[in-house]
Amino acid sequence: MRGVLSSREASFDQILIVESCAREVTERFLRHAYKEQRSRRVDLVTCYAGAPRAFDPARGTVFCVHQPEIAGNRRKFISGLNSSPYTLVAIFCAGTPVLQKWKWAIALRTRAKVLIVNERADFFCFDLASRRLAGRLLAERLSLRGSIDLRALAEALLLPFTIAFLLSYAGWVHARRFVRSATSQL
Fold first, then answer.
1. H runs (alpha helix) in the chain
2. DSSP state, residue 32
3. Half-sphere exposure of 156 toward its Cβ, with a 13 Å CA cutoff?
4. Number of Cβ within a 10 Å radius of residue 70
5. For the chain, what is the mean pLDDT?
6. Of 134, 110, 127, 117, which is closest to residue 10 (Cα–Cα)?
7. Which end of the chain is more exposed for a tag (fewer CB within 10 A), N or C?
8. Rounded to the nearest 10 degrees, what angle do helices 74-82 and 100-109 cross at?
């Protein structure tokens, strides 16, 4: 993921879209990319049969994850995408589990800047400047909007300390047992 620390806006010139949502959201985002952002090339990774109506085949390629050459060697396919000159990779965070592993694998391995698109086809770049938007989207996805469950939040914050305590206690008990067995053999 390039550009996480940068707040510079990326160009919509060459986009890779990972369609991990309902088709209507993709349609809206494609219309915006072609008309408003004037994208020159838009490629699409999808699990649906066929391309969306708003997709322009003269300006891009559709990759279906069910094609044998893609499904058979996922790593090679993602590496091939990584070597392409994309300026943005748009992943949809619309609250659906469609292509969940694909979108995160592509987003993590790509050199392009990552664009997060929600279910309303609103979007923002995944970088430090957009951390508040990302936090709000995460809160929506975790159903923390409105009132926060303080008990669940406290448990989540205390979990690493609890695990560390249990591991140290287990280490102390085993070390004590080892010392006792070593001294009894003398």
1. 23-35, 68-71, 74-82, 100-109, 131-141, 150-184
2. H
3. 7
4. 17
5. 81
6. 127
7. C
8. 40
Encode pLDDT of 49-77 as tens digits: 888 999 999 999 999 988 888 888 888 88
In degrees, rounded to 5, the angle at the alpha carbon of residue 47 between the alpha carbons of residues 98 and 106 is 70
What DSSP state is assigned to residue 27?
A: H
**Contact status, residue 81 vs residue 106, Cβ threshold 8 Å:** yes
SS3 content of the chain, % helix, strand, coil (to 5): 45, 15, 40
Calpha distance 91→98 (Å, rounded)? 11
Distance, first Cα to last Cα, the chain: 59
Question: Residues 122, 32: contact at Cβ < 8 Å?
Answer: no
113: Cβ contacts below 8 Å, ≥ 6 apart? 1, 2, 3, 10, 87, 88, 89, 125, 126, 127
